[in-house]
Amino acid sequence: MPRRPASLLLLPVLALTAGCGALPEKGDRAQARPAPARESGTAAHFELRRVASGLVRPTYVGAAPGDSDGLYVLEQPGRLVRVGPGGRITTLIDLRDEVVTGAEQGLLGLAFHPDFARNRRLYLHWTDRRGDTRVAEFTLGTAARRPLLFVDQPEENHNGGQLAFGPDGRLYLGLGDGGGAFDGHDNAQDTDRLLGKLISTDVDTRGEPRWRVDLYGLRNPWRFSFDAGLGEVWIGDVGQDATEEIDRVPLEPDEPPKNLGWPAYEGSKRLDGDRLEGEGELISPAAEYTHADGCSVTGGVVYRGTELPELAGRYVYGDFCSGAIWTLRPGPGRGAEDVRRERASQQQLSHIGVDSEGELLFAAANGDIARAVSRRR
User: Fold this and answer.
1) For residues 4 and 297, is the Cβ–Cβ distance under 8 A?
2) HEC-encoded secondary structure of the chain
3) Does 175 have pLDDT greater than 80?
């Protein structure tokens, strides 16, 4: 989950932190960085209705292909469970003996293979007992397991979290910069390292997976999602001391990986002490907010459901610490506009997902799962 600096730790639950740094170079490739969108008003597009409770620090909620009756939930200490009709909870995978749980450690990410309804393959991301990153493929209903990734983690924080399949069929993972503050291990700008990156692999290729760096310059991309219709990825990257950011980046694998700027930038602000590296195009945040409104962004999704027509095409995201939820409208190019703070809020917001019909679901570290419903109901 998201995490703030140690002085702001709220619970032994996921949270998120950030850093700074940068020196001018070659004009800093930033002459025309557009200003990110900020909150411009309020809205009441939906209200939240609790549909499950009593879960243990949920870090994910969503639907599995081919299963329209159940919700799948990750619990940070190491279980994947299915919440069926009437709130019945069934344990599907139990990794509690293999997972270490901390503020930003635990069972952090889940993705279903696009053909899950037939092959029953899914993918989990967790922190092992030594504090390092693991990703593996599981076949539900069997003991089959295929290791896909091991990454040594130098610190306990900034583990990243999200797993998701992109519109290109590749499995994507968001990894933080290795922890501490201000990217003290110099990972995010080093394109030869996996930390501080969005990376991907083809899980259907035989042999050892080859992970590709798709984006770099990230601090802690706790949650990201794809808008397949526009070929974009939306990322909530947790800030250091002042700013939380939303990034909107086109998927262009034929070009060098794009640079989101950390630790030379926190949000749109240039920081002193670190340089931009590599050849990647520098990407400005689409939207941002300061720590006056929260302290750890939880990235969300572009709404493509039907129950909330006023929300159609808007990106939904929130903050773990304040419980605020915002929606925005994608603007021209890579920008955003019409940022609205929703009347609905969710404390300890850890994940925003969708059900089998594309309707919004919200997981909270306090154990609740909620659904967005029309205020007209």
Assistant:
1) no
2) CECCCHHHCCCCCCECCCCCCCCCCHHHHCCCCCCCECEEEEECCCEEEEEECCCCCEEEEEEECCEEEEEEEEECCCEEEEECHHHCEEEEEECCCCECCCCCCCEEEEEECCCHHHHCEEEEEEEECCCCEEEEEEECCCCCEEEEEEECCCCCCCCCCCEEECCCCCEEEEECCCCCCCCCCCCCCCCCCCCCEEEEECCCCCCCCCCEEEEECCCCCCEEEEECCCCEEEEEECCCCCEEEEEEEECCCCCCCEECCCCCEECCEECCCCCCCCCCCECCCCEEEECCCCCCEEEEEECCCCCCHHHCCCEEEEECCCCEEEEEEECCCCCEEEEEEEEEECCCEEEEEECCCCCEEEEECCCCEEEEECCCC
3) yes
**How does pLDDT run across 115-126, given as a tens digit for each residue?**
999 999 999 999
For the cut 50, the answer to whether the pLDDT of residue 18 exceeds it is no
Residue 49, burial from CB neighbour count under 10 angstroms (0-12, 13-18, 19+): exposed
The dihedral of CA 334, 229, 121, 363: what is its sign? positive
Query: Tokens representing 145?
Result: 């397991």
Confidence band, pLDDT 50/70/90 cuts, at residue 6: very low
Q: How far apart are CA 355 and CA 92, in angstroms?
A: 18
**CATH classification of 6-373 is 3.30.465.10, yes or no?**
no
Tell me if 124 sits within 8 A of 107, measured CB to CB.
yes
Q: What is the pLDDT of residue 33?
A: 66
* Predicted local confidence at residue 103, as pLDDT: 84
The whole-angstrom separation of Cα 374 and Cα 145 is 41
Tell me, yes or no, if the pTM score tops 0.85.
yes
Q: Average model confidence (pLDDT) for the chain?
A: 91
